[in-house]
Amino acid sequence: MREAFDALGGIATFIKPGNKVLLKVNALQSAKPEQAATTHPAIVKIVAKLVKEAGGIPLVGDSPGDARAHISKVLEVTGIKKAAEEAGAEILEFQKENLEVIKSPSGSKCVPLINISKVVLNADVIINLPKLKTHGFTLFTGAIKNLYGCVPGFNKALYHFQAARLDQFAQLIVDIYEIVKPTLNIMDGITAMEGDGPGAGDPKHVGALLVSTDAVAMDAVAAALVGYKPKEIPITEEAAKRKLGISDLSKIIIEGESIASLKVNDFKKARKNIFYILHYMPVWLRSILFPVILALVWVKPEIIQEKCTKCGTCIRSCPTHTIHQKHQKVKVDPKKCIMCFCCQELCEYKAIRLKASVIAKLIGVGQ
Ligand code: SF4
Ligand code: SF4
Fold first, then answer.
1. Where are the CATH 3.30.70.20 domain residues in the chain?
2. Spacing, Cα 37 to ligand 1 middle (Å)
3. What is the pLDDT along the chain (367 residues), one digit of tens a residue?
4. I need a surface site. Which of 76, 122, 251, 321 has the fewest CB within 10 A?
5. Would you say domain 2-262 falls under CATH 1.20.1440?
6. 57 φ, ψ to 5°?
7. Does the C-beta of 337 come closer than 6 Å to ligand 2?
């Protein structure tokens, strides 16, 4: 970590004594560090220590995917609480703090006003600490997507509903990036998550620790390490289109290891979803075809009853309230499902699998 900071001119370049420095971790759910769903506590600890050494005041915070999850429990299980305490950092719970309503910088019609936790906006310096993972909806989640946690509590589920298409959701996430704009991004890509990320995938060793002032460039490089082209990732593409960073790998200056030396060739990517196909259609065609295609080509969540503990997380987190518990069984009503995959993302017991329609299987969506 010290070497990485030195390559960028040292930590003092970014932090002045007395600065309130927010470490925005990925505390998606109560998962142990070895499950690779959350930022590893070792990263949190060293960054908080370095912030203190530079005279800054380290604060550690997030808002988990399940708004009713107790962040204190999440931080305890993930090891982040202990790491923060050992480094002398204060823990912040975004959903307990006040929020500010900010106008969408891109003029989004789906989510024109975005709620952001005030502690995020009040920090002097934001250090973004994402985890390298696959994502069922956005294919990949890294630095830019990690900032969705700056939206407190239930608003996240609501926005999923309002920005249901992938292009709409990418626009929202990049809006949040434009508002928050971290000073520094440090990605934990040492043990990444492959397959059914961001919550139900498997740990995969990549061995990369990435540090950059440009989250777009960082995501482009991280995605390349696991076999994606930057253009394949809608969030990266949207951010580059808005000139918020560089996504062209040939223009990114890489110090340290090369992409080729760290690239993992057998990394299991996220399953493609129908939103991905729609994303590459012209907007007018997309609007016409959206409902028709969704009726034919779908991938919907299904509860694996033997694994389900009836914890209720998916029921609380579904933006369309389409998951219910009846006769001791948790069930999804597929008619109202908008395929945001929040339920699968947040189920700590890997009790939700994705079931594809026949046409979806035939064209390779949801495989
Ligand atoms: S499917 Fe998962 S999240 Fe939903 S109730 Fe069962 S265990 Fe909990
Ligand atoms: S059932 Fe799952 S995938 Fe469908 S809308 Fe609810 S949370 Fe999203």
1. 274-362
2. 17
3. 999 999 999 999 999 999 999 999 999 999 999 999 999 999 999 999 999 999 999 999 999 877 666 778 899 999 999 999 999 999 998 877 788 999 999 999 999 999 999 999 999 999 999 999 999 889 999 999 999 999 987 788 889 888 988 889 999 999 999 999 999 999 999 999 999 899 989 999 999 999 999 999 999 999 999 999 999 999 999 999 999 999 999 999 999 999 999 999 999 998 777 677 777 777 778 777 777 877 887 888 999 999 999 999 999 988 889 999 998 999 999 888 888 888 988 898 999 988 888 887 776 665 4
4. 251
5. no
6. -110, 105
7. yes
Residue with tokens 């969506």: 365
Q: What is the DSSP letter of 293?
A: H
**Nearest one of 58, 81, 115, 69 to 345, comparing CA atoms:** 69
**Ligand 1 first shell, C-beta below 6 A:** 303, 308-314, 330, 347, 349, 351-352
Query: Helices then strands (H, E): number in the chain?
Result: 15, 14
Considering only CA atoms, which residue is closest to atom 4 of ligand 1? 314
What is this structure's pTM? 0.86
Alpha-carbon span 198 to 177, nearest angstrom: 19
Cα distances from 263 to residues 61, 207, 237, 337, in angstroms, run 31, 9, 21, 36
Question: Is the beta carbon of 134 within 6 A of some atom in ligand 2?
Answer: no
Pocket test for ligand 2, best of 339, 344, 354, 355 (most atoms within 8 A of CB): 339
Residue 340 Cβ inside 6 Å of ligand 2? The answer reads yes
Ligand 2 in reach of 59 Cβ (< 6 A): no
What is 274-362's CATH topology? Answer: Alpha-Beta Plaits (3.30.70)
- Domain span(s) for CATH 3.40.50 in the chain: 2-262
Tell me which DSSP letter residue 164 carries: -
Number of residues that this document lists for the chain: 367
Structure tokens at 125: 């310096």
| Ligand 1 centroid, distance to 310 Cα (angstroms) | 5
Report d(CA 255, CA 224) in Å as an integer. 16
